[in-house]
């Protein structure tokens, strides 16, 4: 019965999060906090200590990513909630959720924005990014070659992972041009919203004032106002992760041993 309750809350909560993220770009606290509270209560009453440990560890790791501007605050809370509501009380469930959500979103958004960018016909020359993409490719190819040689991964898994990784590397090669064309927006500082992501194309003075931080919080906004900064360039309308968290949750619920199946 408890398992069914956990599964139901997971599906409903992640679905609502997917809808609000798609429409507004936010996964609200009124979605994640009740999930976290219920998940914590159920984990304690059912003696699911593993869920609590995983949730706490994951929250710390993702919080670092949030502070670096790599993941949204709503995503952090939602993954924490999913960990606490894990009906299987094991690490594989949340690993499968994150893994499939990441792979699906990488495949979709890389394909979408690469095609959209190429259609514009104005390709920005990005030698540094291309070099970076080549280095990543070399490291990844070498890594998978070692795993295959040691028989630690299946050839089918290598092929499955190779497609989204390849698309991701191509995205990296053109990421600056993609950001400039689809995500960058110059705004008045007074109109800055909570947790803005600062573009690296801001004047160096602005970047120095925030010590190179990408995530602009209240402290950084106060510093910028103090130095009479009127406008900043931020990243808006970034790819929405919520829908893919929902899909990842469905896959993890229906195929909880997916990671083991792929790797062994």
From TrEMBL:
Q: Say if the entry is tagged with keyword Transmembrane helix.
A: yes
Q: Name one Pfam family in it.
A: Peptidase_A24
Task: Alphabetically list the UniProt keywords.
Answer: Cell membrane, Membrane, Transmembrane, Transmembrane helix
**Primary location:** membrane
Domain of life assignment: Archaea
Question: Which one of the record's GO molecular function terms can you name?
Answer: aspartic-type endopeptidase activity
The answer to keyword Transmembrane helix applying to this record is yes
**Compartments (UniProt record):** Cell membrane
InterPro entries attached to this UniProt entry: Preflagellin_Peptidase, Prepilin_IV_endopep_pep
Listed GO CC annotations: plasma membrane
Q: What is the name attached to this protein's record? A: Prepilin peptidase
């Amino acid at each position: 019965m408890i398992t069914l309750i956990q599964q139901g809350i997971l599906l409903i909560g992640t679905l609502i999060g997917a809808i609000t993220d798609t429409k507004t770009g936010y996964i609200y606290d009124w979605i994640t906090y009740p999930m976290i509270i219920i998940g914590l209560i159920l984990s304690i009453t059912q003696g699911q200590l593993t869920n609590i440990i995983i949730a706490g560890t994951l929250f710390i790791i993702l919080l670092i990513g949030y502070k670096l501007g790599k993941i949204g605050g709503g995503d952090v809370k939602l993954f924490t909630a999913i960990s606490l509501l894990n009906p299987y009380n094991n690490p594989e469930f949340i690993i499968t959720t994150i893994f499939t959500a990441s792979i699906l979103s990488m495949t979709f958004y890389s394909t979408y924005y690469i095609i959209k960018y190429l259609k514009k016909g104005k390709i920005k020359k990005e030698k540094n990014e291309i070099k970076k993409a080549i280095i990543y490719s070399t490291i990844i190819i070498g890594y998978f070659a070692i795993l295959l040689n040691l028989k630690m991964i299946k050839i089918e898994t290598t092929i499955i992972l190779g497609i989204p990784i390849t698309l991701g590397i191509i995205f990296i090669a053109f990421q600056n041009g993609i950001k400039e064309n689809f995500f960058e927006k110059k705004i008045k500082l007074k109109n800055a919203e909570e947790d803005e992501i600062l573009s690296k194309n801001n004047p160096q003075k602005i970047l120095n004032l925030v010590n190179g931080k990408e995530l602009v919080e209240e402290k950084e906004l106060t510093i910028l106002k103090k130095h009479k900064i009127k406008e900043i360039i931020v990243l808006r309308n970034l790819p929405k992760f919520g829908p893919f968290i929902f899909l990842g949750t469905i896959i993890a619920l229906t195929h909880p041993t997916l990671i083991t199946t792929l790797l062994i």
